[in-house]
Amino acid sequence: MAVRVRAKFVNRDVVAFVKQGVSAEATAKIRANVARQVLADAQEQNRRATGRVPEHETYVDGRKGAPLESVKPTGTVVFEFDLYEGVFAWIGEQLVLHSPALTGDYRASHLFLADGVPIEAGAKVPEAGEYVFVNSQPYARKIERGQSDQAPDGVYEAVAALAARRFGNIAAIKYSFRALDNGALLAYQPAARVVKRIARGQFGAGRFTATGEDRTAQRREQSLRQPAIVIRLR
């Protein structure tokens, strides 16, 4: 989930330093200062994009945490940012800010899940195909329909729209629904198609009949659906 920013030093830079009579030690400091400027520029870009400066790891010629001055004359410095952590944190903060606060229960019931598995507050976010914010309160759908004086425009749909505009260049963010059961997400249950006979009494190709068990699972999944914000990283 990391975003990389690279500072690379090429032969023509080294030749220029040598021609100017710059010592190896001074040249190393110059390369380190160039890398620091690249880092500062990247941090400012990330701050403007996410509202915060994300944490980063430094790799000097592939060595994690090595001093910038130790980069080889034609080496590479890579700064690896966890940019998406800022996206998730911003969405979580906005959900709290937009939540009605009559009792505080709804505000305290936003959950964050990676591929359907809850992530504890403060835990490292794992790589996943889909990230979801959802509220565990049973009246979340009523709030989304505007049945709260404190949130007449709902919460999840509004925050999803704000997040999509702000982070649309790095993540696909949309308002949707997910079925929440005991703190985890249920798999989506598609509507069953009814088998019909076509010409000569044959059954239509690719169709199936839903069993009673299928229909029960569908009804249960649909009854548990809650407003959600779904995020897929680009």
Task: Write a compact overview of the structure shown.
With 234 residues, this protein is of the alpha+beta class. It has six helices and ten strands, in the order βααβββαβββααββαβ. The chain is elongated and about 80 Å long.
In terms of structural class, how would the helical and strand content be classed? alpha+beta
Beta-strand percent range? 15-25%
Order of helices and strands: EHHEEEHEEEHHEEHE
Mean pLDDT over the residues: 82
- What's the number of extended β-strand segments? 10
Please give the order of strands in the largest beta sheet.
6-5-7-10-8-9
pLDDT < 50 runs, ≥5 residues: 11-15
**Quaternary structure:** single chain
Helix content: 25-40%
Approximate shape: elongated
Give the radius of gyration.
26 Å
Number of DSSP helical runs: 6
Cα-to-Cα separation, first versus last residue: 10 Å
What does this structure look like?
This protein is of the alpha+beta class. Helices cover 35% and strands 23% of the residues. The protein contains 6 helices and 10 strands, in the order E-H-H-E-E-E-H-E-E-E-H-H-E-E-H-E. The chain has helices at residues 11-19, 24-50, 83-98, 140-144, 156-167, 212-223, and strands at 3-8, 56-60, 63-64, 76-81, 110-114, 117-118, 131-135, 171-181, 184-185, 225-233. The strands form 2 sheets. A 6-stranded antiparallel β-sheet has the order 6-5-7-10-8-9, with helices on both faces. The protein has a 4-stranded antiparallel β-sheet with strand order 1-4-2-3, with helices on one face. Helix 3 (83-98) packs antiparallel against helix 5. The longest helix is centred in the N-terminal third of the chain and has 27 residues, at 24-50.
